[in-house]
Give the backbone structure.
Amino acid sequence: MPKEKIVAGGRAWPSTNVLLTVGIVVFAIIVLGGVLLLGGDDKPRGSSTVPSSVLVNEDSHRITEGGTEVTVVEFLDYQCPACAAYYRNITADVERDYGDRITFVVRNFPLDNHSLALPAAQAAEAAGMQGKFAEMYHALYDNYEQWAVTEDGDQLSDDEDRARAAFDAFAKEIGLDVDQLHTDMASDAVAKRIEADKVDGEKAGVTGTPTLFVNGERFTPSGETFAEVKQQFRDRLDAELAR
Amino acid sequence: MSDSRPTPVTGWDAAASGSQMADDGPLGRIVRWLYLAGGGIGLLASFVLMVEKIALLADPSYVPTCSLNPVLSCGSVMATPQAAAFGVANPLLGITGFAMLVTAGIALIARFRPPQWFWLALQAGTTFGVLFVHWLIWQSLYSIGALCPYCMVVWAVTIPLFWYTTLHNLERGHLTGRPTGAVLVRFHSFVLALWFMAIIALIAVRFWDYWVTLV
């Protein structure tokens, strides 16, 4: 049986196949590397500061208002595990220890891949309309396991009914009018506030959460553990306060 | 088995020189060594994953050696239902399948000339493997939202194992009764590179926010 002659071995080298293969790999490396290295240029990094007009609005929610010399702004996503870990390990303590000396502003940056982040942001904003934003912010993070992750705690939840039921429970505990909360959560005003926060976040170069700014300067920790990052953050605050 | 091969000349160069080529075709050498190397790497990765899984079961607070950061995190991947898609831990399937491929590779290197059904079985096995792996890639990227390095090693070896098995079977006529796929054979590694690039691009885009923080 005569076999079809296939030109794959024993001919001039390099073959078209090899050239194409090397070509596509080199092309991919250049594109990926180029975008990664150069892509950062269009957003502020390092020592460049973001104007406070972008970071803080008149009506932005302030968790603490202890002085205007140092303002910390956090762009957060209530369902993002890293944000919850930041809260548990860093910002909750900072709020307690520095609350009387700094202004701590939190702004919404719900990410598309966290399906419960938006309803949570709506709950916080709606609570804000009843004057209890900070209480809801705390409830959402203090009880993160009750709504943001699956019941076995293994992965992020996408059970919106369960999350909304949890939000209602938090609202009752805080002393909110739950029916009003539902109305506000679905309102245009709340949707616009969240969207405005996202737009400002994008202007400030935020791409992921949590992203923190200390007096307009992005906080980029080098620490490997939360303990190290926390120390860096506190050092940073101390330095700003000492100015 | 040794009937029509009096001279033990092996390999690519020998194949190119003439009648030997008819024996296992242009991809025969790639396939047998790929089974040994790729199968071996896959076996090692599956084995390590299984060991990690057992360690995690024994001590729920154990942090697997491949949980490096929020994105590269086997711990979070191993804890998902997808990690036991068929009711048993996925690495068990990997250990079984890759061990078979290693054995097949060694047999082929030892000049075993398998019947058609043997190749069809390899085709079935690697096809199942590649489908499963793509489902896992999808789950890892869009459902779990984390990558597990050892799992990615398995992805990386399963795709060429399937690809070269298929090409070889096409070219040898094991699948259709007559040789086909000449163009694919000719551009074998280019197609494979495109395949890898597509997956790398999906990973890059999916976790872009994280990668930029590392630069």
